[in-house]
């Protein structure tokens, strides 16, 4: 089985890791982070959702090595990237792991504002879990720029991270959280010089995006789906934003940051047809925006926790077609400087380019 096919299987089916988790002493583990590194890729594998118990994949500790098995047969060795920085604490006693986490093999990621204006309303995205980790005490509500500078600085020194992903819940203000993203990015940039990715909703004023120009290298403005009926049901807040507003924001982003430095998540498995994903990806690629195509991740505790991701064969077909669209345009994840596109743990598109 090719690495890219295995990656799609793991993204869609997940893997059982229970025995392994008990056997590990601490740090970022498969149960906590689910980051599996194998071959020349890394995959963010579901390990806690209900459907994982049906997966043919499991990980076992064999003579000190983590072995990925399918129906009990050895497939390959997997590694779980270390995140020693997460074990440290700030001077005021907050665990670094509550401020930022290692994503993939070399990206440090955080949600700068862990609350969302839509959370307690019928408009919230049904696939989202932003405030669940806050309620569980796994993180803090708002990360201060100086805290992030300290934590990312440590991640750079200790774990040799090479880029940063900043996301945010949408605020009730017209900047949609961009001002705080800019403050956080400036502090991190000054402390580390690392390339930084920032994700946000299209702001009311396009000039808000310009605030990020000095400190940020790449941006993500996520449409989630090009099917309006699906959006209305699964992400009502996004359905209220006209597609044209996304297009203007993407265009402004490409003008500022360059082709392939702007991306949009597209989630497969919300109830859309393949055509909407393929045509939507074509539109993004024409604008110079990278379509970060991911299978639905039903997160335990979210409104969609009982759903299932799309089947691997559907995702392989979509990745194949969208990979060809990228190829025709000469776009590749390799040119992207920071964030999800460079990390590629949550999408197998890079592996199909
Ligand atoms: S692709 Fe993005 S969200 Fe997924 S692990 Fe990497 S940085 Fe995190």
Sequence-ordered SSE layout with sheet pairings:
Blueprint: H1 3-13, H2 18-23, E1 35-38, E2 41-44, E3 57-62, E4 65-70, E5 73-78, E6 101-103, E7 107-111, H3 132-135, H4 145-159, E8 163-167, H5 178-192, E9 196-199, H6 207-210, E10 218-220, H7 228-234, H8 236-239, H9 243-257, E11 262-268, H10 274-287, E12 289-295, H11 312-329, H12 340-343, H13 349-352
Parallel strand pairs: 7-8, 8-9, 9-10, 10-11, 11-12
Antiparallel strand pairs: 1-2, 3-4, 4-5, 6-7
Helix pairs in contact: 1-11, 4-5, 10-11
Folded structure, characterized:
The chain is of the alpha/beta class. The chain has two domains: 3-78, no CATH class; 84-352, Aldolase class I (TIM Barrel, Alpha-Beta Barrel). Helices cover 34% and strands 17% of the residues. It is built from 13 helices and twelve strands. The chain has helices at 3-13, 18-23, 132-135, 145-159, 178-192, 207-210, 228-234, 236-239, 243-257, 274-287, 312-329, 340-343, 349-352; strands at 35-38, 41-44, 57-62, 65-70, 73-78, 101-103, 107-111, 163-167, 196-199, 218-220, 262-268, 289-295. The strands form three sheets. It has a seven-stranded mixed β-sheet. A three-stranded antiparallel β-sheet has the order 3-4-5. A two-stranded antiparallel sheet has the order 1-2. β11, α10 and β12 form a beta-alpha-beta unit. α1 (3-13) crosses α11. The chain starts with a helix and ends with a helix. The model is unreliable at 22-33 (pLDDT under 50). Residues 44, 103-104, 107, 109, 165, 340, 343, 345-346 line the site of iron/sulfur cluster (SF4).
């Amino acid at each position: 089985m090719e690495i890219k096919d295995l990656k799609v299987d793991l993204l869609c089916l997940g893997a059982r890791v229970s025995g392994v988790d008990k056997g590990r002493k601490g740090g970022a583990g498969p149960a906590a982070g689910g980051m599996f590194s194998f071959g020349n890729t890394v995959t963010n594998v579901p390990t806690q959702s209900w459907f994982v118990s049906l997966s043919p994949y499991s990980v076992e500790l064999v003579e000190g090595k983590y072995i990925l098995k399918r129906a009990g047969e050895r497939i390959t060795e997997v590694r779980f990237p270390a995140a020693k920085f997460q074990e440290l604490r700030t001077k005021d006693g907050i665990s670094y792991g509550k401020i930022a986490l290692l994503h993939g093999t070399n990206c440090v990621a955080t949600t700068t504002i862990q609350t969302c204006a839509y959370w307690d309303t019928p408009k919230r995205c049904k696939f989202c879990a932003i405030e669940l980790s806050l309620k569980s005490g796994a993180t803090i509500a708002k990360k201060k720029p100086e805290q992030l500078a300290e934590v990312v600085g440590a991640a750079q020194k200790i774990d040799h991270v090479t880029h940063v992903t900043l996301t945010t819940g949408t605020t009730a203000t017209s900047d949609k959280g961009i001002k705080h993203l800019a403050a956080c990015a400036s502090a991190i940039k000054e402390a580390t010089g690392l390339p930084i990715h920032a994700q946000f909703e299209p702001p009311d004023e396009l000039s808000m995006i310009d605030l990020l120009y000095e400190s940020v290298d790449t941006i993500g403005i996520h449409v989630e789906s090009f099917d309006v009926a699906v959006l209305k049901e699964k992400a009502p807040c996004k359905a209220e934003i006209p597609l044209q507003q996304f297009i203007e924001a993407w265009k402004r982003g490409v003008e500022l940051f360059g082709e392939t430095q702007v991306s949009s998540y597209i989630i497969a498995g919300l109830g859309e047809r393949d055509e909407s994903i393929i045509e939507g990806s074509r539109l993004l690629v024409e604008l110079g925006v990278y379509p970060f195509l991911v299978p639905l991740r039903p997160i335990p505790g979210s409104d969609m926790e009982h759903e299932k991701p799309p089947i691997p064969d559907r995702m392989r077909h979509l990745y194949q077609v969208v990979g060809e669209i990228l190829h025709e345009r000469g776009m590749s994840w390799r040119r992207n400087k920071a964030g999800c596109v460079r990390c590629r743990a949550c999408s197998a598109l890079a592996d199909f380019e």
